[in-house]
Input
Amino acid sequence: MAGYCGYTKSNNALAAEAEDKLPLTRAVAALAERAGVKRRLAREVLMARGACEWHHTSKRYNRTDYYDVAAASRWLRWAPQRDEFDRSWRAAAAAAHKGFSGDAAHARTMPIFEAAAAAMSLTVEQVRALYYRCEDEGEGEA
Output
């Protein structure tokens, strides 16, 4: 959807904003309001997670970084559970998962996820999502 909407921003930038991806100053305000945190913490979280994409803005075609407010909000919401989901759970799941993929890996890690879910008052799916998100962020190894 190339092109410009007037002289302010590209059509792709408008599409990103419709997907809750905003420039930093607007993302900070949106995240602080949505997550109920101070703007300073919202800025730190967004900066730590980094920009998810960039778009051209202004009539001079400036490059503006866009931040995913929805993803940052989910990250903040999971913060207490991430703290509880200590290295021993992740290490046990990683050890059970190692060398297996697909159904075999799922079968080996399911009892660990069930125990973690019971300990943290979460559903198994929430624990699985937390584990795999940690893996994606490089935190899955002990």
Summary: The radius of gyration is 19 Å.
